[in-house]
Design brief:
By secondary structure, the chain is α+β, with helices and mostly antiparallel strands. It contains 18 helices and 23 strands. It has 3 domains: 19-253, PPM-type phosphatase domain (Phosphatase 2c, domain 1, 4-Layer Sandwich), CATH 3.60.40.10; 258-359, Phosphorylase Kinase, domain 1; 363-551, Transferase(Phosphotransferase) domain 1 (Transferase(Phosphotransferase), domain 1), CATH 1.10.510.10.
Length: 582
């Protein structure tokens, strides 16, 4: 790890297994160097989930706080980005961090009560993740790409020409409370060189000089960076001089074969029986078994705590996709913190087999509860639904979609606390940006509860989970499903017809029936876009819903309308035949 150089600039590097790096920063003809730059290649899982972060910043020279601002911006970006949740997309993570940095700099500047003491800086950052470069830019520092001998700027300077040889910044961190940040992304190729420079360099070095120097010193980018800074200085640059070169020698992707090999490095555990000892746990009994997994009640031998151990089925020992989904469950569970989501626990010791451990929930599934309570009250149903929604929010806040919500995956304990279980189908936005090895296969959920849009290769959203919750609430209140057996194909979606819940349970308040109809609408754009809105409409009448008595008969119940129309037409035709035959 490096944290500075002779100029006092911030630099931090943990390791560089896939990149070659060259850096040079000098004050030039100025007394103080207000530029800052840095790079972090994280260790472990963060390299896959978050990628590599690179940044450069140039403190605005008209303010005394320029150097401080550039260092704060660079250091905070590099450190705080890796503190954002691993499931978040790059764009969401970076936007969250950069907006917080800008607001802090702006507030500090306002506290100084003087423009000359403002904390203002330009900034250019890049996240290299899974073969993609995500670029974020404000001001006139610059990121340039050298690919196959061609030089291409990847950022646009935010400057306004104010006169001969005069320009002013139109955007910078710390200038305004709200900041527009340029964002773009592009696929990375092996051999690409990303050139990070402040304006003291790129305004005095031509594209052809960049290409020539990098070709000349391709084996030593430190020398190349130093020579580019020297060229700018010799060309009469009067500003600070910073150049950071990052060459991609390997894309840094974990190939699918390597990824699967890592997952398969742990053998499947043998069949477990009561009394069996598995790495600090004593198996008590089997709770559930299917062709996909086994679930056991066990006890921590050291603490006496009762836990659940889930193991993969030997039927899928040679199926890479299955192993990925099994590992996904533990990964997701460790990152969700909610009283309505079952907790995934750390193993007692280094594992020798493939399994994971969760808290033990003493209770029954919602599926069993529904069998025991075929006619529950609205209060009971709302209480359960509200807890399910709370669990789903924990997923949605981390850019995750459950995607397999169903009564069999929901537990209710003896205190009527609801907990969501089984996360193997969870869609994770942050991993969807990767190389594809961890992408979620389509239609992993159960047909009866799967949102119809997923049959048309549409990416699942929060509304897909809202649909599943709507079906579950509908089923709790009516013992039926809104579309019969659900959707087995895109063809069945096109033929769908919603049966209002009040058709099956006439005593149901019309506004509850309307709320359910909106939650399970075939068109996601006409569905609720927030769980809170759905929960509110289940507990209180929504004034937007017209009472059935005020609606035309055709809109209130189209099926009955057309059946009545057909019978009436048949009766009239028969009557006419009788009259004409006389």
């Amino acid at each position: 790890m490096r944290t500075g150089d002779e100029e006092g600039n911030f630099v931090v590097i943990h390791q560089k297994p896939q990149l070659t790096i060259g850096q040079c920063s000098k004050s030039g003809r100025k007394e103080q160097n207000e530029d800052s730059y840095g790079l972090i290649i994280p260790k472990g899982d963060l390299l896959q989930t978050k990628g590599i972060a690179i940044a450069i910043a140039d403190g605005v020279s008209i303010s005394q706080g320029g150097k401080e601002a550039s260092e704060i911006c660079t250091k905070s970006f590099l450190e705080d980005y890796f503190g954002t949740h691993e499931s978040w997309t790059v764009k969401k993570s970076v936007a969250t961090v950069l907006c917080a940095i800008n607001q802090w700099l702006y507030r500090q500047s306002q506290a100084q009560f003087a423009v000359e003491k403002a904390l203002a800086t330009t900034f250019s950052g890049l996240i290299l993740k899974a073969g993609m470069a995500h670029i974020f830019h404000v001001g006139d520092s610059r990121i340039t790409l050298l690919r196959n001998g061609s030089v291409e700027p990847l950022t646009t300077d935010h400057r306004l020409h104010t006169g001969p040889g005069q320009n002013s910044l139109t955007r910078a961190f710390g200038m305004e409370p709200e900041l527009e940040i340029d964002h773009r992304k592009l696929a990375v190729e092996k051999g690409d060189v990303f050139i990070f420079t402040t304006d003291g360099v790129h305004e005095f070095v031509s594209p052809s000089q960049f290409a020539a120097v990098l070709e000349k010193h391709c084996d030593d980018l430190e020398v190349a960076a130093d020579e580019l800074v020297t060229i700018a200085y010799n060309n009469e640059s009067k500003d600070n001089l910073t150049c950071q070169l990052v060459r991609v020698d390997e894309l840094g992707l974990v190939s699918e074969d390597t990824h699967i090999e890592q997952l398969q490095s742990l053998p499947f555990p043998p069949d477990l029986y009561p009394g069996h000892i598995l790495e600090g746990y004593k198996i008590e009994r089997e709770l559930h078994a299917s062709n996909r997994s086994q679930v056991y009640a066990a006890r921590d031998i050291e603490t006496g705590e009762q836990v659940v151990i889930k193991t993969p089925s030997l039927n899928f020992k040679d199926v890479p996709d299955y192993i990925e989904m099994f590992m996904r469950e533990e990964w997701v569970g460790k990152r969700i913190q909610s009283p309505n989501v079952v907790r995934v626990l750390p193993p007692k010791q280094q594992r020798s087999f493939l399994y994971y451990v969760t808290e033990y929930v003493e209770g029954i599934t919602l599926e069993a509860w529904m069998e025991n309570n075929p006619n529950p009250s609205l209060v009971e149903v709302h209480g359960i639904a509200d807890q399910i929604a709370s669990g789903l929010r924990a997923f949605h806040r981390k850019d995750m979609i459950h995607q397999d919500l169903k009564p069999g995956n929901i537990m209710i304990d003896k205190n009527v606390t609801v907990k969501l279980v089984d996360f193997g189908s969870t869609g994770i936005a942050g991993l969807e940006e990767g190389d594809g090895s961890l992408k979620t296969p389509r239609l992993l959920g159960t047909v009866d509860y799967t949102a119809p849009e997923l049959h048309f290769a549409v990416k699942s959203t929060n509304q897909s989970d809202i649909y599943a919750l709507g079906v579950i609430v509908y089923e709790m209140l009516t013992t039926k499903h809104p579309y019969g057996k659900g959707f087995a194909s895109a063809k069945s979606v096109k033929r769908c017809h919603l049966t209002p819940a009040s058709t099956h349970r006439p005593s149901l308040p019309f506004w509850v029936s309307e709320a359910l109809s909106r939650a399970v609408h075939c068109d996601p754009n006409k569905r609720y876009d927030a769980l809170s809105a759905f929960m509110a409409d289940l507990s209180h009448p929504n004034q937007e819903f017209s009472h059935p008595a005020s609606q035309p008969f055709l809109q209130r119940d189209p099926i009955v309308f057309w059946k009545t129309f057909a019978i009436a037409s048949l009766f009239i035709n028969l009557l006419l035949l009788v009259i004409l035959s006389q």
